[in-house]
Amino acid sequence: MKGELTGGCLCGSVRYVLKEGMRLAPYACHCTDCQKRTGTAFSEHMLFAEKDIEVEGALDTAEYTQPSGAKSTIYGCGTCKARIYAVNDRRAGFASLRCGTLDVSSDIVPAAHVWVKSKQPWILIPKDSKTMETQPSSTEEWVSLVGLA
């Protein structure tokens, strides 16, 4: 996950470049919010410095208050509604990229799995994977769990 990364939405109306910079290794989230938002068992994310993303195309936004009370702003394609990234008010300057939007998403190997207490029972997490019942509560805890990319 080093170097410049590129990606975009399903229909191609939105493209982005994630410049080399401060980013954490990708992780899999098994929370019920991600399950509902994606319509599947989990999602893959990568925290990055928001200043490092350059987006071309029309984004729309939606706001959501997470169970923790954090207020999230979700950015996605205005045409196909694919979610690209989100920011929340508890991690100023950072954003969470939806890794499935990367051009080479097959290179993603989660450094950790969070919210495993709500994962689907048929999902098997490799025995040597780092896991957490919920999620880290601070940037320092995120870095400790997943590491820098």
Automatic annotation (TrEMBL):
Metal-binding recorded as keyword: yes
Record has Zinc as a keyword: yes
Family note: Belongs to the Gfa family.
Organism: Qipengyuania aquimaris
GO MF annotation, one: metal ion binding
Gene3D superfamilies per record: glutathione-dependent formaldehyde- activating enzyme (gfa)
InterPro entries to which the protein is assigned, alphabetical: CENP-V/GFA, Mss4-like_sf
Assigned keywords, A-Z: Lyase, Metal-binding, Zinc
Source domain of life: Bacteria
Protein name: Aldehyde-activating protein
Domain CENP-V/GFA: 5-123
Lineage, broadest ranks: Bacteria, Pseudomonadati, Pseudomonadota, Alphaproteobacteria, Sphingomonadales
